[in-house]
Amino acid sequence: MSKIDNQSINEVLTDSLTKYRNKLGQEVAFRKIIVAQKNKAQLKYLKTLQSQDSVVKRLQKKLSKRTSTLVGVDIVTKYDTVLKTIVQLDSNNYPVYSFSVKDEWVNMFVKCTKDSSEVDLSMVNKVDIEVKHERLKWYKKKEMNIEVTQLNPYTGTDNVQGFTFQNKKKYNGLKLLGMLLIGGLFIR
């Protein structure tokens, strides 16, 4: 992989989030990941980078020299439905309105009286996050990408960003070969 520079980091930050539905009808969000060298200069640049992106700001606070890969996702849940309301009278002859729903993703109970409302809501969110090293087009080089799949049909991905650090490649095989050749010369 070529040397990572600040310009390529800025290009990834301006890349847009791509969303589509897979065969199962689940929302899949896709974005390039920021790849940086694991050195003090790149870490300092990423920590001081001025960005309007809320996920980038949140991840900047967590960056450290021990960070290998960091991914942040903003998820929005929208549950829009019409339910049959049950009307009963309380002991003072005031109406009490209630409805409930329970399925794999939503467990909700709502009760409204003359002067109060009671809401009990719990939602299950299941998310698969995959960091890939793939070629987007056959003529382009491989890039690191984040793919977020929402398993809950009521949730969607608002934003996703990620940082990953790579160590400088060490050519241990070449070093070993060089030492063997030099050592062989001294033994003769």
Itemize the secondary structure elements and their pairings.
Layout: H1 6-13, E1 18-21, E2 27-32, E3 34-37, H2 40-48, H3 54-60, E4 69-77, E5 86-89, E6 95-102, E7 106-112, E8 117-123, E9 127-134, E10 143-150, E11 155-166, H4 172-187
Parallel strand pairs: 3-11
Antiparallel strand pairs: 1-2, 2-10, 4-11, 5-6, 6-7, 7-8, 9-10
Apparent shape? elongated
Question: How large is the radius of gyration?
Answer: 26 Å
Low-confidence stretches: none
If strands are numbered along the chain, what order do they take across the biggest sheet? 1-2-10-9
Mean pLDDT: 82
- Major sheet details: 4 strands, antiparallel
Care to count the β-strands? 11
The helix tally amounts to 4
Task: Describe what this molecule looks like in 3D.
By secondary structure, the chain is of the alpha+beta class. It has two domains: 6-77 and 128-187, no CATH class; 86-121, no CATH class. It has helices spanning 6-13, 40-48, 54-60, 172-187, and strands spanning 18-21, 27-32, 34-37, 69-77, 86-89, 95-102, 106-112, 117-123, 127-134, 143-150, 155-166. The strands form three sheets. The chain has a four-stranded antiparallel beta sheet, with no helix packed on it. It has a four-stranded antiparallel beta sheet with strand order 5-6-7-8, with no helix packed on it. Strand 1 (18-21) and strand 2 (27-32) form a beta hairpin. The chain is elongated and about 105 Å long. The mean pLDDT is 82.
